[in-house]
Amino acid sequence: MAYPVIPQNIVVHLGPPDQPAENITVPFADYIRNVASSEIYPTWPESAIRANILAQISYALNRVYTEYYRSRGYEFDITNTTRYDQAYTPGGEVFENIGIIVDEIFNNYIVRQGRVEPLFAQFCDGVQTQCQGLSQWGSVSLAEQGLTPYEILQYYYGRDIGIVNNAPVGTNVPSYPGILLQRGSFGEEVRQIQLELNRIGKNFPAIPVIPAITGVFDVPTEQAVIRFQDIFNLYVDGIVGRATWYKIKEIYNGVKRLSELSSEGITYSEAQRVYPNMLRFGDTGIAVRIVQYYLAFLGYFYPDLPPIAITGEFGQETYDAVLTFQNKYGLQVDGIVGRNTWNELQRVYRETVEDLSPDYQTYIGEIYPGRFLVRGDSDAFVSRLQSNLQRISRSDPSIPPVQVTGEFDEATEQAVKALQRQLGFDETGDVGPILWSEISTRGRGY
Fold first, then answer.
1. What is the CA radius of gyration of the chain?
2. How large is the average pLDDT for residues 16-26?
3. Which residues, listed in sequence order, are joined to residue 337 by a DSSP beta bridge?
4. Are residues 355 and 361 in contact, defined by beta-carbon separation less than 8 angstroms?
């Protein structure tokens, strides 16, 4: 799971979660102003007001960050029913002093020290209802005793809390990547489900451990997905679509208790991305090379796409090609490769490959299949890979020989790893577009 951002907007369901009601989209700061004015009194001491507002912000952000309702199939972030969430009154009055404080601190929230996710800062009035979290009227008494907002929050939530200040504001993008994840898929989303399935497996040991968290959807990942789908009564196909994605998220949040005060929490290392969520001018690395590979390939068939070299550097040439691609396919034309541009690149590439006649192989070389090849695969692409590895091994004794069987077996994996080691790549044994291109080029003797 990524680091939290303050959403520009939050979608509020005006009723209990399981009852029909209107969903309204509200700017996040406006939502907090309304909630605070509905939940607390403007005459309270300022320290109590600030402590309560921070709790309300954190509560709402926890709902958004964990996709608590969206992972259950709802199309909203939070309800306005106090039985489940916190009060929101459409068109309700906002008190001036509360509005000023919200404007100052709406992008601050509570965390456990060493954890990333906004704290599920449960609260109640402390008179008519009792709870494990903050007592609203109790906070008034503590403020009158001279406690600061942070000390009040520590009193209720523990001394190990911290406050994140001036968090970035961003769009509230659903976590589901928008494309099916299956064997051969790769990227941060695959790495995320690998991590989450392994954590779920500690509570559900029938789910096999994924031994290597590489971001490549390999056979062990497929097997873990299949077992997960079987346990939780999903359609069993080993493919992560929207339903499986959000069920994984729901169960992961549950075993981690992310929507409870006693949360296991998300550590900084768990939230750290390996694959960037967007590429832009000036970036370098393997992810840039993959984008360039797709664009260079498509340039053979679409003359309006400018020619591009695979350099691993996102320079002017790549920027211009991305702009042209985005304009051609109706995307936001900004020269940045984010989720939508990346998904469209993969889609267009795969469809182009599927529509090619075999004759094109002669003119543009052996075409990457549009997915990572991993151990356990069995098809004509594996045979082509093995043929090239066989030719490479004849002239390079550091690459062990393989047989052309069409089965991506242990020998093929060892040959791939040997070549990766030679090239300075991570020794994963998986074949993506850049390694495929290198193997094809060397296999043809170029």
1. 26
2. 96
3. 279
4. no
